[in-house]
Amino acid sequence: SFSSEEELLGHRSSHSVTAATPPASPHRCPTCGKTFKNSSGLARHRHGHAAERPFKCAVCPKTFTQLAGLVGHQ
């Protein structure tokens, strides 16, 4: 017996597949811990932590780590 509906719902969710902890991703950013489904996503993400920002806007002083960021900005 449960003392509240909240406790009952919590108990029910413990039996569902979605309550299980997802498997650890092998593609985890060592800087911030964010995980990715593939290595290319992680590689792209890691450029964001780099100090180098080689893509500069011709109109304003904003710079970007990836060309896609600059293209989206323009």
TrEMBL record:
Stretches assigned to the C2H2-type domain: 27-54, 55-74
Identification of the protein by name: ZN449 protein
Cross-referenced PANTHER family: REDUCED EXPRESSION 2-RELATED, ZINC FINGER PROTEIN 200
Keywords: Metal-binding, Nucleus, Repeat, Transcription, Transcription regulation, Zinc, Zinc-finger
Region (Disordered), start-end ranges: 1-31
Gene Ontology CC terms, in alphabetical order: nucleus
Gene3D superfamilies from the UniProt entry: Classic Zinc Finger
SMART domains linked: ZnF_C2H2
SUPFAM superfamilies listed in its UniProt record: beta-beta-alpha zinc fingers
Similarity comment: Belongs to the krueppel C2H2-type zinc-finger protein family.
Cell compartments where the protein resides: Nucleus
Pfam families, A to Z: zf-C2H2
GO biological process: regulation of gene expression
InterPro entries: C2H2-ZF_domain-containing, Znf_C2H2_sf, Znf_C2H2_type
Molecular function GO terms recorded: zinc ion binding
